[in-house]
Inverse folding.
């Protein structure tokens, strides 16, 4: 076999395999995505502890990572194997659970919407993070869940909710803690010690909050 034949064969081989790879994992989904909004839940269907923003990283080699807002990608980061072919995203958990099959929609190259229930009324919206190694960039640990209003004209989305960004650091603690606080996340807090989901509260609850910092960490956000 002469050199030209070998080169032609090699090029054809590469083209065939690259085409197969592109069909398996479309470049459109590869990268880091920030979960920014979820359409409203009913009270009965809402997550008991709410749901915080997070980063989801789709690597070019078929791994789907789930990264907490302030965390970085590590070998211990939870991940699935995934394929994205013909518009269908299939995630395979590592513990033998059934595959997760979703059909993302891309209104534009930096926005992804994913329907997460059979009724088609629970849409998760993601925004692409374009920075280098975006999966290691901390994001705001804000809530991405709103309860469904009885009157649709009164419905809020997470983008309608604004947190207090004023600097109260010069105030005494007893003055700083006055207000409405949303509990966003817990770390190393024993199950029985986790406060109830309706504990958005004023300062009197701060005595109880203080006890959680003995064994773990609770992230609060001022509304």
């Amino acid at each position: 076999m002469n050199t030209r034949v070998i080169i032609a064969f090699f090029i054809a081989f590469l083209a065939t395999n690259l085409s197969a790879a592109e069909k398996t994992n479309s470049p459109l989904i590869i990268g880091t995505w920030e979960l920014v909004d979820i359409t409203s839940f009913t009270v009965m269907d809402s997550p008991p502890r709410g749901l915080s923003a997070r980063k989801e990283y789709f690597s070019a080699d078929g791994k789907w990572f789930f990264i907490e807002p302030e965390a970085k990608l590590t070998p211990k980061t939870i991940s699935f194997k995934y394929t994205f072919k013909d518009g269908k995203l299939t995630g395979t958990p590592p513990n033998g659970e059934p595959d997760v099959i979703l059909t993302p929609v891309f209104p534009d190259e930096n926005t992804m919407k994913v329907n997460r229930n059979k009724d088609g009324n629970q849409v998760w919206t993601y925004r692409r993070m374009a920075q280098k190694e975006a999966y290691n960039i901390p994001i705001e640990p804000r809530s991405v869940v709103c309860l469904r209003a009885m009157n649709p004209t009164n419905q809020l989305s997470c983008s309608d909710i604004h947190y207090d960004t004023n600097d109260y650091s010069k105030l005494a603690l007893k003055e700083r803690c006055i207000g409405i606080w949303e509990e966003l996340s817990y770390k190393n807090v024993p199950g029985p010690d986790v406060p109830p989901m309706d504990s958005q509260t004023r300062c009197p609850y701060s005595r109880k909050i203080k006890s959680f910092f003995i064994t773990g960490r609770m992230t609060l956000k001022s509304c």
Observations:
- Residues 173-222 form one domain.
- Confidence is low (pLDDT under 50) at residues 1-24, 197-219.
